[in-house]
Amino acid sequence: MTSDILFSRRGAAGLITLNRPKALNALNRGMVLAMRAQLEAWASDDAVTRVIVTGAGERAFCAGGDIRALYDLGQAGRHADALKFWADEYPLNTLIKNYRKPYIALIDGIAMGGGIGVSVHGSHRVAGDRCSFAMPEVGIGFFPDVGATWFLPRMPGETGAYCALTGERFNAADGVACGLATHRVPSERFPKLIEALTGTVSVDAVLGAFAEPAGEGPVVTHKAAIDRLFKGDTVEGILAALDREAQSTGADAAWAAKTAATIRTKSPTSLKLALAQVRRGATYDFVTCMRTEFRIVSRIIHDEDFYEGVRAVLVDKDNTPRWSPASLADVSDAEIERHFAALPEGDLPLS
Predict the structure, then answer these.
(1) How far apart are CA 155 and CA 203, in angstroms?
(2) Catalytic residue list
(3) pLDDT tens by residue, 154-175
(4) Tell me, what's the pLDDT at 2?
(5) How many CB atoms lie within 10 A of CB 55?
(6) Other residues' Cβ atoms within 10 Å of the Cβ of residue 26
(7) 247 exposed, middle or buried (CB, 10 Å; 0-12, 13-18, 19+)?
(8) Can you give the residue ranges of the Enoyl-CoA hydratase/isomerase domain (predicted)?
(9) Predicted local confidence at residue 242, as pLDDT
(10) Domain span at residue 75?
(11) What is the pTM of this model?
């Protein structure tokens, strides 16, 4: 038990509160280990019929893993210690995916990276008014993980590729439309929703009574263009399609120009890895996706771009990363394949 994550019982529900509001409830290894142990205990407790997960404070559900701490470990040459975080996090994601009781994530605020990993794989994901989903990893020289290789290709159309390559935020309406959330409930009703969920009425019935129409968000507004322009199998091809659209007189021209400019700020290596994940993950089962991500993270924590990206965004905050390689053309197919290759020591055990 750690004060960074709180567990309690209310009626038929086990409640988990991610409790680092000043750090936007970012996950550390202690939280991951404690959460996994508690979920395993509740799985065999007949008195607990559902699990509810919330984030403390009003700003975030969970803004991801504690990337700054992992950066510090890597900078100190302690790559093996840093890798332990992901070696524990990915089995937690797998446990949530396979959990045999209703797992309800109440998402009101930022949900990024690891925060999506402890929500999107659950059976029920409820988006509040402040909900903001994103997988922004390509902007820090990392890659979309925590099961993104599974869920990004299964988002409608090419919205998963758009999410991976741009890091753009999806609001509550977009989250429901794209499958990141299953229900939309106003934030002010969350306390009453929690109270109702702690009873014995079925989770589906309770959420059905509270849910409201999600509406249409800004990402979905451009879905036809996203599906048309992000269907390529190379980042270069997608950017070329966006550039052509930007030079047209179409309604999506300005949006395409802005989107292309956004992508060009990201790590070229990360962009190619992310698109490869989306395309390959479409044919992978969940376990293969998670094992693949551990292969990638085992390599990427030794790459320059991860440390340069974190430096630029989280340490010095100058937002001017100097990527290496600096261009997509200089990222070889062999370099991408190297990240996906089998590990000499074998794949990560996920149970």
Answers:
(1) 24
(2) 65, 114, 137, 145
(3) 999 999 999 999 999 999 999 9
(4) 66
(5) 28
(6) 24
(7) exposed
(8) 14-340
(9) 98
(10) 1-351
(11) 0.96
